[in-house]
Write a structure and sequence with these properties.
15 strands, about 10% strand, six-stranded parallel β-sheet, single chain, about 900 residues
């Protein structure tokens, strides 16, 4: 029968609920009679009951009346997706149009003290089914997080915005599911914030470029990728903005803007795209897979701006992202991206008026170069008219070679100069050897002449800031500008307004959403040429000190759950940080500050995928500077080893560590030697050299004890116990644990207690006593929570997962695998390779027991677990 009763086995477990609503349904074989449902009439849902039950439906609730509503509980999202393809199949004698189902899917736990019908997942699924239209399947956000990572490629997901579901306190984001076998109609609107629009502000009005604009739109109708290619400052970004503004309403989910300036490899490109999507998870999948899954099926236009530095890796990234259904891309670049399945729109100078023909003021609007001049001049002075100056304006744009930025700069001068004066100040067309150009020769140096002319009309403070701020490699705040220009902030803000009005500075969004400023690339190059001699040295010094101080302040916050805003802050200034480091090395100044800065910032270089750049700086410092003492060299080599190890090059890491040990033998600070020994021990242990690792741990523990650094003693102790257990030396591990307890670690802080508890748990598990290990694991989880140390928490969860496997609690172990990855990711922490191998062995056993699909779901569920839930899991095991 179709009407199955609720199953008590639902209680205390997590299920994915599918609610399917059928308002009109035919009698089988009659082909079109619709109306209320008498008890003896079967609809589409009852027709599929047997197939649904075979897919694992544990409970089916039927409501009869003017509609038929079925709510089914499935053990996995994968089985729900299979069920949907079954439901959408056409019963005999009917067509898709005759049985338009409305489906809602949500995942949730059924409490032990409740019924399935009152659970949050059940209620959400019903609400979504009520919200869906005919032939549509809506899924809740929690289910989407699982489905996007487990669904086959033919499934797609469309963001429908946030809605308020009945009985829910907060609005929830909802997604529409698509599949070739589901005859669904695209939802036009659900949530108020469905459309994304991150197009940069302050780009001004768009004038001209009609043919190129049309070409980009036409290309997007045919290709997934359209490249806008042209030289610098020719208007590529403006054109992309115009295209995005045109399509922000028609591209279902809107327009996403991603700047790739400074990117060098695929990892950095994917990180930028992932950040624009709100961040991506690294576990359990690669970054490439995470971004691909986030974008799969999305109806977005993604603009990739300033791609010149990464055209080769970007070609590979775009090929991967375009392998399945998803967004369209517009890329702006001065170099062509080497890919065949893409359209190219080339951008050159703007259309110029004829040289020798008479022109009226009205004729100026017919040519895009003169129309741009008129538009920008009216922006500066609303009453501006060409009048008798039409020919002078035409000569100005010809003099400037139709270059948009040069025309903009010249037009800004109409605030105080007539077109005739502007033309006279620009001077004649100059040739390569300094002679006046003849009419048949191409114009030269137009942009530089316009920049020179604009700078001559700035105030003295304006010129001072133009020169001094050219030291910045990226954007800056008014406070940054005040420090570098050596001016007061209020005065700086006034002068910045002057530079913006002159068209020489543009505004951008800062890491905190506030306005920042930057020079266009060509303006920056011109301004930098004006900064010379003693003034340049003085500005470089202030710039270096500014960013050393910034790094010192941010380094206190580069770990833990609130690190992201500080990492984003440093990443925003990444070009200026690199410049400050290079200055310290080149000038031989602040070398002690350089060492300290590298020690403080190593996690930034690692977490933002800048390991090669950091290693290059360290090698340069070691080779070219005798002013760094042995202790400083040892610290730098130790940091290099850490970065190389985290980057996956264990051979290079070992070389750095051994060089550091050799250098630090006679160093004054024994703590440096102990830290290097500990890091090398961890590396040797991860490379299965446990004997070598134990000796190194012993040496470092002795030093930490002499220095009374109990925290480091505890951490080294836990690692050495695990290494001994890997060698099967259980008795020796127990003896070491007893000896360590005499050191008073049990009365220490939370992390010292954590080390003892996790060591006891490891020994109990090595003896096959998983039940004896569990109280120690639970205690270690509590200690890690109290210390706020997510990586220690992740290591405790590894041992809990092993205990769950020993007791064949496969689902608990699967969820713990996700929690381990989630907590390691939340701290951006590095799990030692030995732990990674242990995780792999645990996961292999779990997969063999319950299958790959279920493990993937459980991992994703576990990654969202709270510590209190993990403690409950420990108690349940």
């Amino acid at each position: 029968m179709f009407d199955l009763q609720s199953d008590e086995n639902l209680l205390g477990q997590t299920w994915t609920f599918l609610a399917a609503r059928e308002t009109e349904y035919p009698s089988p074989g009659l082909g079109g009679e619709h109306g209320s449902a008498p008890e003896d009439v079967q609809g589409v849902l009852p027709y599929h009951a047997a197939n649904l039950a075979s897919l694992g439906a544990k409970s089916i609730t039927v409501i009869r009346g003017n509609s038929l509503l079925a709510v089914m509980a499935f053990p996995s999202v994968a089985s729900v997706l299979d069920a949907l393809t079954v439901l959408m199949a056409e019963p005999p004698g009917t067509s898709a149009a005759q049985h338009p189902l409305m489906v809602g899917v949500a995942t949730g736990e059924v409490p032990m003290d409740s019924r399935a019908e009152t659970s949050q997942g059940f209620q959400r699924a019903v609400s979504l089914a009520e919200l869906a239209g005919a032939g549509q399947a809506l899924i809740a956000s929690a289910t989407f997080e699982i489905a996007r990572d487990t669904a086959p490629d033919e499934f797609g997901f469309r963001d429908c915005g946030t809605v308020h579901l009945p009985g829910q306190a907060r609005r929830e984001r909802v997604y529409q599911l698509s599949h070739p076998s589901i005859p669904s109609k695209t939802i036009e609107s659900l949530g108020e914030d469905r459309v994304v629009n991150t197009i940069p502000k302050g780009m001004g009005y768009f004038v001209g470029r009609e043919s190129e604009f049309t070409a980009v739109l036409r290309g997007l109708d045919i290709y997934r990728v359209v490249q806008i290619v042209g030289p610098g400052a020719i208007g590529k970004t403006h054109l992309a903005c115009r295209v995005g503004g045109e399509l922000v309403g028609s591209a279902g989910e809107g327009v996403l803007w991603v700047s790739l300036e400074g990117c060098r490899n695929a990892e950095q490109i994917l990180e930028r795209i992932g950040d624009s999507l709100g961040g991506v998870r690294r576990f359990p999948y690669s970054l490439e897979m995470d971004v691909s899954k986030q974008l799969r099926g999305r109806d977005l236009l993604i603009v990739l701006d300033r791609c010149e530095s990464c055209v080769a890796p970007l070609a590979g990234v775009l090929a991967t992202l375009c392998a399945s259904s998803g967004p369209r891309f517009v890329a702006t670049t001065s170099k062509r991206i080497p890919m065949t399945d893409a359209d190219i729109v080339r951008l050159g100078p703007m259309i110029l008026p004829p040289k020798d023909e008479p022109l009226s003021a009205d004729d100026l609007e017919s040519y895009e170069s003169t129309a741009l001049f008129m538009d920008r001049a009216r922006e500066v002075r609303s009453t501006f008219t060409a009048g008798e100056d039409a020919r002078a304006i035409a000569d100005i744009v010809r003099r400037l070679d139709g270059h948009p930025l040069a025309i903009l700069l010249a037009a800004k001068r109409t605030r105080s100069h007539s077109p005739q004066q502007i033309l006279a100040n620009l001077g004649p067309i100059i040739g390569v050897n300094g002679e006046k150009k003849t009419s048949g020769e191409p114009p030269r140096k137009s942009l530089r002449d316009a920049l020179r002319y604009s700078s001559q009309n700035l105030s003295s403070c304006g010129n001072l800031m133009l020169r001094r701020l050219s030291i910045f490699q990226g954007a800056w705040t008014p406070l940054d500008a005040a420090v570098i220009a050596d001016l007061d902030v209020p005065e700086v803000e006034l002068v910045l307004n002057e530079l913006v009005e002159a068209g020489m500075v543009e505004t951008v969004d800062g890491p905190d959403g506030k306005d920042c400023y930057r020079f266009p690339a060509q303006v920056a190059a011109f301004a930098s040429s004006l900064l010379t001699g003693f003034e340049r040295e003085e500005v470089q010094e202030r710039h270096c000190l500014r960013f050393i101080d910034m790094l010192a302040q941010a380094s206190k916050h580069l770990n833990g759950p609130f690190q992201w805003q500080h990492l984003d802050y440093l990443d925003f200034y990444r070009g200026d940080l690199a410049l400050a480091f290079r200055f310290m090395l080149a000038e031989g100044r602040h070398l002690l500050s350089f060492v300290d800065a590298m020690v403080l910032s190593w996690s930034f270089w690692y977490k933002r995928n800048r390991i090669p750049e950091a290693l290059q700086l360290i090698e340069r410092a070691i080779k070219s500077n005798d002013a760094i003492d042995k202790e400083g060299i040892s610290k730098l080599l130790n940091i290099a080893g850490v970065l190389a190890n985290k980057g996956g090059d264990s051979a290079k890491a070992r070389s750095y560590y051994r060089r550091a040990l050799q250098t630090s033998r006679n160093a004054v600070n024994p703590g440096v030697l102990a830290m290097i020994s500990t890091n090398l021990a961890i590396l040797e242990w991860s490379e299965d050299n446990a004997e070598v690792a134990i000796k190194l741990f012993d040496g470092s523990i002795e030093v930490w004890q002499n220095l009374e650094r109990k925290h480091y003693v505890a951490q080294s102790l836990a690692s050495s116990v695990a290494a001994l257990l890997d060698l099967g030396r259980v008795e020796e591990a127990e003896k070491r644990l007893v000896d360590s307890q005499l050191l008073g670690l049990a009365a220490g802080n939370s992390l010292e207690k954590w080390a003892l508890e996790v060591s006891k748990a490891q020994i109990a598990l090595a003896k096959g006593r998983s039940s004896e290990a569990l109280p120690h694991i639970a205690a270690s989880i509590s200690c890690a929570r109290d210390a706020g140390d997510d990586i220690s928490l992740a290591r405790s969860l590894i041992w809990l997962a092993q205990a769950a496997v020993e007791q064949e609690r496969w689902e608990v172990a699967g969820a713990l695998l996700g929690a381990i990855a989630g907590y390691a990711k939340s701290a951006e922490a590095y799990l030692y390779r030995t732990n990674e191998l242990r995780i792999a062995r645990i996961e292999g056993r779990v997969r063999a027991a319950i299958g790959d699909a279920r493990v993937r779901e459980l991992r994703l569920m576990g990654s969202l677990s709270q510590i209190s839930e993990l403690l409950m899991l420990a108690q349940s095991v």
